[in-house]
């Protein structure tokens, strides 16, 4: 019987100027079922290697940590090529991790960029390869650690109420955009 995961923390990064370096804001939304219970704000190094650690710290230090059953990411990277290690997150937080994307990534282009332009690119590419290919779930694509495809599909279906993107990610995207641009815009 698949678990019914209803306590979800969804994370997305704010808009940033590629190549500018420095910190990129990250927003997390915490949901209990379809109710937004809280917002987390942190930052990661653009194209850095601290994404998984920073997300773990954001969640661990929050008052929401006890109710979160699943960590959801909008894509595998934050702040450009700060590739988040979902295996690390799953182990450290003892919670499954679900990576969600609207479209399949251009893996040859990502590989080329990582291996030629990004510090630590080989390790980041190895992590992407270890995670394996994205799997279709409805009109989205997912990668998962610590949960079955059936559980992932259940979470996506349960939380996708405004379009196809699950609410924790859609709302994190909107808030992240507003933090930097003064207002939200575009699709999550």
What's the short story on this structure?
Helices cover 35% and strands 27% of the residues. It has 188 residues and is α+β, with helices and mostly antiparallel strands.
Trace the largest sheet across and list its strands: 3-2-1-4-7-9-8
Percentage of residues in DSSP E strands: 25-35%
* Dominant shape: globular
* CATH architecture verdict: 2-Layer Sandwich
The name CATH uses for the topology is archaeoglobus fulgidus dsm 4304 fold
Text of the CATH class? Alpha Beta
Helix-residue proportion: 25-40%
CATH superfamily: archaeoglobus fulgidus dsm 4304 superfamily
Which class best fits the helix and strand makeup?
Answer: alpha+beta
Number of separate strands: 9
Total DSSP helices: 6
Number of individual domains: 1
- The topology string of helices and strands comes to EEEHEEEHEHHEEHH
What's the average pLDDT?
Answer: 95
Distance between the termini: 31 Å
The biggest beta sheet reads: 7 strands, mixed
